[in-house]
Amino acid sequence: MAHVILSKKCTACGSCADVCPVDCIKHSSEDSQYPKFYIDPETCIDCGACMPECPVNAIKDEKDVGSEDITEVEVNAKFFSEGPGYGED
Ligand code: SF4
Ligand code: SF4
Question: What pLDDT was estimated at residue 87?
């Protein structure tokens, strides 16, 4: 399990990335397919530190992601498996 950023809510402010102890919240400034921040599910340790930092409540524990947002789990993972991942800032 991991935490998940709901891309339709994320405003790409970056606040969550600043507090992640394992530095697994990333974004791409160049790939327009991935305009928001995403959490690497392989590295996230489920500490929850990012959640209170988000001003728009866009971060959820994967187990709490509802059926209406379930595709976001794959969107976050794809950023790292097929998208820029850790390749940029
Ligand atoms: S739950 Fe913890 S490890 Fe996972 S993305 Fe948030 S701050 Fe990082
Ligand atoms: S704190 Fe929230 S709005 Fe800001 S980048 Fe993180 S998930 Fe997106």
Answer: 87
